[in-house]
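Reproducibility note. Readers wishing to regenerate the assembly model reported in the main text can use the exact inputs given here. Chain order matters: entities are listed in the order in which they were concatenated for prediction.
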Amino acid sequence: GAVVSQHPSRVICKSGTSVKIECRSLDFQATTMFWYRQFPKQSLMLMATSNEGSKATYEQGVEKDKFLINHASLTLSTLTVTSAHPEDSSFYICSARVVGTETQYFGPGTRLLVL
Amino acid sequence: KQEVTQIPAALSVPEGENLVLNCSFTDSAIYNLQWFRQDPGKGLTSLLLIQSSQREQTSGRLNASLDKSSGRSTLYIAASQPGDSATYLCAVKPWDAGKSTFGDGTTLTVKP
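Running the prediction on these inputs yields the following C-alpha cells for the assembly.
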C-alpha cells in the first residue's frame, strides 16, 4: 500500500532556531502534498498546499515567510519552521495525493517542541 | 535575566570512567531544569527533567541533581561509553514556564 514517511518523528529545539521536516511518498508519486498542524486537543488544521515545481499555497493566517515549503520532487516536500518559538510547538502532519486521483495518504507526523 | 553556565566546556575521558557535568544558574525562581544531549547535525534529545520541587532524577546510567538554593545542577554519568560522546546541554525554564535559557553545553568525548 502507499506509504508516506516523515522525518524526524520528533524534534526538540531552542527558541530562535530553524527546523526542517521532510515528507516523502515512498512508493508513489505525488504532485501535491499538504501540510497540517494539530495543537493538543484540537483538530488538524491545513497550513498549506505544496505543489511540485511551484510555490506553495498558504491558508489564511499562516505566515509563508515563517513556514517555508519546498516541493522539489514528486516524492519529497519539506517544511521549514524558521526562527521557531514556543508557540510553534505542535504536531505537524503531511499528506500526499496520488497523481491523477483525490486519494491522500497521511504521514505519521512530527512532534515539534520549542523550548 | 537568567544566566546559565556549564563547566567544563569540553571533557575527554577514557571509557568506563564515571563523570560529572555541571550546570549553574543565577535565578533560582525556576519551573524546571532539563538535561539534553545533542549529536552533531541532530536535534536535542531529552535526557532528564527535574521539576522545581524535586532534588534528583535517574535514568539508567544517568543521574541529575538539582539544588535550587545554590543555583546548581549536576549530571552524573556512570561507566561512560564511547556512545556517550555528544554535547550535553542544560536548560532552565523560568517560574512562569516561559522560554527556557540554555547553557553553552559541555562537549564530552569518551575514548575507547
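We highlight two features of this model. The CA atoms of residues 16 and 87 of chain A lie 12 Å apart. Chain A has no helices and eleven strands.
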